[in-house]
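User: I'm curious whether this sequence folds into something compact or stays loose and floppy. Could you predict its structure so I can see for myself?
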Amino acid sequence: FFFFQAEDGIRDFCLSRGLGDVYKRQVKERAFFYLDLIDKLQHEGESNKNQYFDLPSINEVENIEKYVLDNMGSIKESDDYKVLEYQTISDYAKTHAPAPSKQTDRSRLVEDYVEPQYNSVEVAPQMDKVSLKPNFPEHEIFSMIGDLKLSTQPKELTDPKSEYQVMLVKHFYEPCFVLEFKVKNTLDNIILKDVTANLQLGSEDLRITHIFSANEIKYNATESFFIIVARNPDQRVITGSGGCFLKFIVCEVNPGTTEEITSYDDEYQIEDVEILVSDYMVPQGLPNLTFTNTFDHIQGEEIAQTYQLSYKTVELAVKGLIKHFGMAVCDSSDEINVNNKFHSLYLSGSYLRLEHVMIICMVGIDANLGCVVKIRVKSKDGVLSTNLVESVS
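Assistant: Here's the prediction. I'll summarize afterward.
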């Protein structure tokens, strides 16, 4: 491996064949177009761009364009090359920046937040034996979100000995996903009512649209409440995480009856809710020793990027990447030869059972940079491949 440090992170010396490089090349061409335009407006025989500009970054190009287009006349008439200094351009663009646009409604569902109640249905109290099939309440929204693509395995969000035991199952649909919180009440003489949650997911591309509370959870019973989360339809793999509190009404009842003694509002903190890359993926194995040939012939443009990661060894990096992507390991590529300078990990999977994805992770340890990983992704969906590559950063 040969690497150099760039402003936006670690890059290897080879040019990537991904969509990102196509975009960067177009941006550079646009930048030089406007720099050359400035030179022509100054009526100079030789290019002066290198005297006043380094190659602009992607984020700086819009400033250059705005300044030139807004000040075409004054630049043409000026003999002072200070009008071409980047600081002048940047200051002008900042002071004339347009007002931020309104956030697009990405849900593509129906009305905004609603919190209807429903009559809950008894399910088995053994949390480790509950079915993954969602038992949705009767509401038209569940008939509008399409076919279920996959459901994750239940994850415990509380200690097994806690008074309220909570498991989370994520049900994925093409436009959204549904978080099902399975709550078990272990307190005798207590009934929980209107059980829901206060949840933050920490991503602008994820939006909570509906919450369906559990009407009632009696002692030693397990009930579910549901949160529908819409995804930005312009993206494929969107991750997020945030704190979560159960919210409910505690009703104390006389022993052996449902006669209420008193009631009060309460909340209960549980573990953070995480939406992971691996949640979207289903492992999809390949016949032994066929990965590289399949990768070379799969349709779609390769998206590639190189990152500097915090792993101390190649072995830890390989284990971390397998867990991160949640895909099938091919050609026994999780077995590491310590004598090699770098290691190639081969992964194959299916995105929401819709799209086959293949990933090559080239992992090496550099004396100066530490762990460096080049991620190469191929699928028919360029946005999906880009999302997966960028998820490693």
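Summary: Confidence is low (pLDDT under 50) at residues 1-30, 42-59, 98-131. Helices lie at 19-41, 49-52, 58-70, 72-77, 86-95, 291-297, 314-325, 382-390.
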